[in-house]
Amino acid sequence: MAREIERKFLVKGEAWMAQADKEVHFAQGYLNDIQQTGSKSSVRIRLEGQEANINIKSLEIGLSRDEYEYPIDVDDAKKMLKTLCVGPVIEKIRYYVTFKSHIWEIDRFLGDNNGLIVAEVELSSEDEALELPEWVGREVTEIPRYYNISLSQRPYCNWSDNEKNI
Fold it and tell me: Which SMART domains match (predicted)?
């Protein structure tokens, strides 16, 4: 079993773009409705550039949760994204930025989530010290609406101004 330990932040400004080592287009969709009674996990299909995978993640909110990920055939993934997903497919450009000893993944969302930019960083333990770059804004690790699964059900374009500013 894999355990993902990750913190999530909003991004300020565009200074991070000059530090990006690479960028990759992502398309991902969910095969289950997490709002069904008894749901304990999300099941996601993701195209990441020219690779594809299926991912199962526990529905815990917060710093760490169980995660399983396995490669799948790209053509199969494309078909599943078109025919089997619950809700819309999320598209984003992921930028990779190295800062100190961590690789930050910065997601600039497209489509109905356009305007939202979120930075994530994986940690080796929940109490690991983390130095934040100047372009990192408010932490949103504990706010469910910033999770990709939530964005697939209620996109950023449907958020109130208050939700976007809190």
Answer: CYTH
The beta strands (E) that lie in 59-159 are given as 64-71, 90-99, 102-109, 117-122, 136-139
Q: How buried is residue 59: exposed, middle or buried, by Cβ count under 10 Å (0-12/13-18/19+)?
A: middle
CA distances from 21 to 10, 24, 52, 103, 105 (A): 19, 11, 21, 10, 10
% of the chain residues with pLDDT over 90: 78
The CATH code of the domain at 2-165 is 2.40.320.10
Q: What are the pLDDT digits (tens) for 14-61?
A: 999 999 999 999 999 999 877 777 778 889 999 999 999 999 998 887
Q: Is 30 known to be catalytic?
A: yes
CA atoms of 83 and 115, how far apart (whole Å) = 27
d(CA 101, CA 153): 34
